[in-house]
């Protein structure tokens, strides 16, 4: 029996016509001799009545000042996938195909106990195997599993898997069932060389490696999550990204060894970023090290994700996502660090805030206060060129910077790795930058 | 149907390994002529014409720096002859690579790596990252010490799984 795991995202189960399209794909796989095992996300995207964010809002609206417990959040958002699984299973039944919906725990998915960001530890898919052997189509809730605490509480605790959760469920179930393939269905034809919202008609990539898709995903192109790709690669399960609403063959994601060669894969962009640069030139050398240590400890403790970190003897800098900037500002603006009898006061931006002025007044009688002003660059984004065995080739940086220079797009900073080169640019220039880079790196003709 | 036992899946989160790649030289060009953008592009044009690969390019207010393979440093220096500005070459550079699956999704992880790098008191000239690793350019003489510090902190110590 050849099992095919088919995962359908929120838009593929958003309404009756979409669910019918998804069901037709499932039936088609069955007619081709596969035993389909289906994984679903919650119904619709942000703003939809049963989408994950909407359900979460139900809790938050109780009292916006009280953060709900992670356990309650998991139980609430887990309902989205339960509804999707149930309604898709029933849709299949109305089409004459026996189907059974399963919660993550019922499908045998066990996780660690980290609510909201659980990691799958093991899968014992006996109920799924039984359904398949009886000729039924299992429809499994993505994004969730069960944590069974050491004391063996009855039923276990529902946990959710965090980012990329439903994709991860699909790959893990595929691995557990030794599936012939895992197919991630979405509303685009596959992995594109750029975001179609910004670059006109970017081609669908027919084949990419795990590393390339992981870079694309982390740098903004979230078609399939790297966690899912990683599992599929480790267990050597063929992984595809396909469109629920078309017959396009989609994108195959393969191991590095299966697709060698030098190539540019795509261009990508992050969301809005804010860059902060701290000039520590006026601090004593030893103080500068202590300040940087405390600064990064504070950022780590508060779970801030950093981009383009720069460290040098006279300062440090980094970029943060706009949605984390408010927290960074709250942490750092007006922060006072005592170091060896001296006081360092952090000020974000050139204008002193109320917090900074208050601290200045409080510290005035003490004296020996040095203000560290962080230069703030708001409204940035990071555009990236992603490639395979390409970044080290002569002329890549030249091509990239020349292209942006021709468009008179300022580049604040660059960062590179084995698979990507990224440039920090004004967010307002992002669309032009993506189009230009897509063009000069010859991606429009990659089909 | 194949017999499937309980199976483990996702890798442990957090740092999984640390490695050192050696054999690089870093070229710093300062006091380039204005307009600075044209001067930087001229530097890159010369590197391209000489067929030299570069990594870890970093822009400074009055210049540019990048990494080349040690074996290409002399050729790079030759290619840059006549460029207005001050060229400094640091031979014996290494890249310390810290691996952690989905590192950019692990909240605070890159900040923690930066903190440990600062604690080790090693001059870190550049930091890059990709989906499963952070790369730090450092003098070769300090690279092993930095790598050991990372191993101690992330594989054995306070932040180990």
Describe the structure.
The complex is a heterodimer of chains A (447) and B (161). Chain A has 447 residues and is of the alpha/beta class. Chain A folds into 2 domains: 2-260, 3-Layer(aba) Sandwich (Carbamate kinase); 263-447, VC0802-like, CATH 3.30.2130.10. Helices cover 33% and strands 28% of the residues of chain A. Chain A contains 12 helices and 21 strands. In chain A, helix 5 runs parallel beside helix 7 and helix 11 (396-406) crosses helix 12. The radius of gyration of chain A is 25 Å and the shape is globular. The mean pLDDT of chain A is 91. In chain B, a hairpin with a 2-residue loop joins strand 3 (55-60) and strand 4. Chain B is 30% helix and 36% strand. Chain B has a 6-stranded antiparallel sheet with strand order 3-4-2-5-7-6. Chain B is an alpha+beta fold and 161 residues long. Residues 1-6 of chain B have low confidence and may be disordered. The chains are: A alpha/beta (447), B alpha+beta (161). At the A-B interface, strand 5, helix 4, helix 5, helix 6 and helix 7 of A face strand 1, helix 1, strand 3, helix 3 and strand 6 of B. Strand 5 of chain A pairs antiparallel with strand 1 of chain B.
Briefly characterize the structure.
The complex is a heterodimer of chains A (447) and B (161). Chain A contains 12 helices and 21 strands.
**Assembly of the depicted chains:** heterodimer
- Across the major sheet of chain B, the strand order is 3-4-2-5-7-6
Straight-line distance between termini of chain A: 34 Å
- Under CATH at level 1, the class of the largest domain in chain A stands as Alpha Beta
Total count of helical runs of at least 4 residues of chain A: 12
- Name the CATH homologous superfamily of the largest domain in chain B: ACT domain
Q: Note poorly predicted spans of chain B.
A: 1-6
Global morphology of chain A: globular
What count of helical segments of chain B does DSSP give? 4
Q: What Rg of chain A is obtained from the alpha carbons, in whole angstroms?
A: 25 Å
By secondary-structure content and strand pairing, the structural class of chain A works out as alpha/beta
